[in-house]
Fold this protein.
Amino acid sequence: MNFDISEEQELLQDTIRQFMANECPTTHLREVFESETGFDATLWKGMAELGLVGLHLDDEYGGAGLEIIDLALVAESLGYGGAPGPFLGHVLAGLAIQLAGSDAQKQTWLPSLATGDAIGTVALGEVGGGWQPEEWTLAAGSTLSGVKLNVPYASIAEVIVVGVEGGGLVLVEKGASGVEIQPIEGVDRARRIDAVTFESTPCEALPEGAAQSGRVRDAALVLLAADAFGSGSRLVDMSVAYAKTREQFGVTIEHFQAVKHQLANMAVELEPSRGLFWYAAHAFDHVQDESQRAAALAKAHISDRVMQIARDSVEAHGGIGFTWECDVQLWFKRSMFNRAFLGTPSVHRERAAQMGGW
């Protein structure tokens, strides 16, 4: 039995990495990072033209009809490239509508989400760190009132999928009355977040929202784990490249045994965890009774390990590693985002333990 990804999936990842290297080198990433909006319309258009933003949507709506494992491989490659923009919230909004929406809602939104012409996002987090469907408190009928925090790119979204009381999901369209959006100064300026206040805002329930919101959360955990893995890979590669060029005492520091050990430890911490997000993504579509726990473990372990790799990468770069001028900070902050968004590792380890009957 072959447990590796296919040649087509390898080609997909190679294509994305080449695209990111050409269209978003670190010089451009810094420009977006330091911009007011954190959004590059040209880069987003390029990602859409590659089919990345609708990869998981059914072909009848203009998507590619692929699985979450394919979307996770995209997220890994985007994490490696440090891709800025609304990819995470957008693909989750499309998935939520596809899994839980009515036929009319799918026909209305999925074609434009598949092409990237409309941008979607999800509003899941609440005051006090309530990320999980069972923790949502906003009551919704024909209207919605309350506050959602850490909403990716709410300011440019055409539609927001909002998690509500009872684990349900509702749609709020751009321009709806009673919506106030305030930017939050998050740590990762390549992926902007907002606070969204709803005041008697018209909304439309997704009929299967309560049944499918947990699946949307699980997909999000897989994508965060995959992005974290890609970020960790980039940090390891940056550290190795730096060790080959930085000279001390007349030789490059790659010759020092302590540095060799540090770099080896970083790689050994990361590479074995690849199978965690691969399996969690596979389980989402094929082993659904194990999907929830696999997603929780993948997100908890990989985001935690990559955060340590980010710290080690700063140390490997010496004094310059602590500075804004060093590119390590871009992926360090991305790693912080991946660790915190949708709950810290301790949250998901506890969930996994409970699901395992511990």
